[in-house]
Each structure stands twice: as structure tokens, then as C-alpha cells.
Amino acid sequence: MRNKLQLFLLLFVGCIDYEFHPPDAKPPGGDDTAPSIVDTHDSAPPPPTDPVAVCDVTPSPIAPPWEAATWIGENSYDPNGEAIISYNWTLVSSPAGSTATMPVGGSNRPDFVPEMAGDYVGQLIVSNASGDVSEPCTATLKSIPAENLWIEMYWEHINDDMDLHLVAPGGSYNNLNTDCYYANCTPSMGWIYNLDWGTPGYDGDNPSLDLDDIMAAGPENINILDPQTNGTYTVIVHDYQGSTSDVYGANNVTVNIYLNGSLTWTDTRAISGDNTVNEFAEIDWSSGTVTSL
Known about the structure:
Elements: H1 2-17, E1 56-58, E2 69-72, E3 84-93, E4 109-112, E5 118-128, E6 137-143, E7 149-155, E8 162-167, E9 179-180, H2 187-193, E10 207-211, E11 220-224, E12 232-239, E13 251-259, E14 262-271, E15 277-284, E16 289-292
């Protein structure tokens, strides 16, 4: 009984020593010290009021110089429901040396054929019946050679005929069997000479000069779909006799060499002197390397 009494007294005394402090009541009309919530998110942009150009190009990538693509603008629209009456397509960027132009037409522009490897950028601007004009829209067409060996050439001044040559491993310049050039290697002449390089009877390792230019400034190209010869090819540029223009003097000639679809080597050289033969590079197909000459 005494123990219970002592325990009761201890608890009672502890309660007396503890001071309870109720929370302060907020006075009526007092300042609110709680932190305010600020919306830091950017507000949504206003909806467009001008027409909107929507552009694309398909298919992409494609292979030069025969495959074609279509620039597509038919999905352009006016947010106010007005009719789109003008589709202004322009080619704003293309590889150096290219002569390709944007096809004429309406919202879509089919049959665009890139003759060189690289990127082609088309731009579309549309306008509505009220004369309101859209912001530009751009689309990029990638032109990638299908052939594993692709050589292209262009030059600076017109009326100075430059000829591209590719000499087979172990071959010689101007040899109709071992040198691919305008006399024996174009689509119109190739069937006559029927160059058979590499594996006998296999067409995939034979060369073709698909583009040959005379009066302008190129481009020209020689390609082999699937080279089979583990040897060294030689790239040569011939300034055709009687074509040199005395007005310009030296002519800057550029040669690009693509191996397996990628640009591996490029060089620009000033060529002067009629009927000159200029060795540019050697291609070691077995090692996949290009050496300047």
C-alpha cells in the first residue's frame, strides 16, 4: 500500500513541474507568414495566327545519280481556316559542285534527283489568301552512294572540259581495257567495250562513268558497286585538249572519293595547261585507304 502511495505522489509532483504552453492563437487580421507558392513554369506559347509551313522529303536517304525524292508540303495549314494559296519551295543548300535545282510544282515537288553525294536542304514558305506568310520550314535530303567505290569531280570555270579517269590495278592510262573514262565507260559506250575488272563475268565489280560533262563545270562521277580487286586504283584528271579557256587561267578542280558510302578523301587543285594529265590519288581497296599523288 505504501509503495502505491509513493508512486502516486511522484507522478503528481511530475505533473505539477511540467508547464504546458498552448500554441499562440493567430490574431484576427494578422500577417500571413506562410511562404507563398510561385508558379515558375513558362506559360504556354500563344497559338499561331499566321499560316504554318509543314515540310518533309521522302524517301531519304537516296542514292545518286538516278534515284528521286519528293519534297512534301501538303500538310501545311492555316490556323484560322484560310486556304493556303502559295507554296514557295527553294533549295537553300546543296553539296559544292551540284547543279540540282528544286522542281517546279505546287505543295509537293516530286522527281528531285541529286547527282552528287551529300546533304540537300529544301525550304518551304507558305502564304494564305490574305497574304499572311509563314515562318520557313526546312527538310534535309541525304544523298548517299549505293556503290562501295564512288568518285566525283567538279571544277570552277565552264568551257574548260575536265575528264575523270579511273585506272584499274595494274592498268595504264588511256588503255581501253584498264582505264575507265568517256571513251569506253559511259552507259552508252560501256556495252561496246564491256570492261571486265576483278572477278570474270561479275558485273558488280566493273566501273561505270555515269555522268560526263563537257561544256559546264561538272559534275562527273565514276563508280564501282562492289570492287573485288585487292589492288590499287588510280584517279586521274585530264584537261581535254583544245578546251582550255584563256580567260580564266588556272581552273580549280575538286575530286571527292567515297568508300562504302562515306567521304574518305577530297582535294582541290589548280590545273593549268591544255592537255595535261594530273594524277590525284591512289585507292588501296584492300586496306580501304586513299593516298594523295
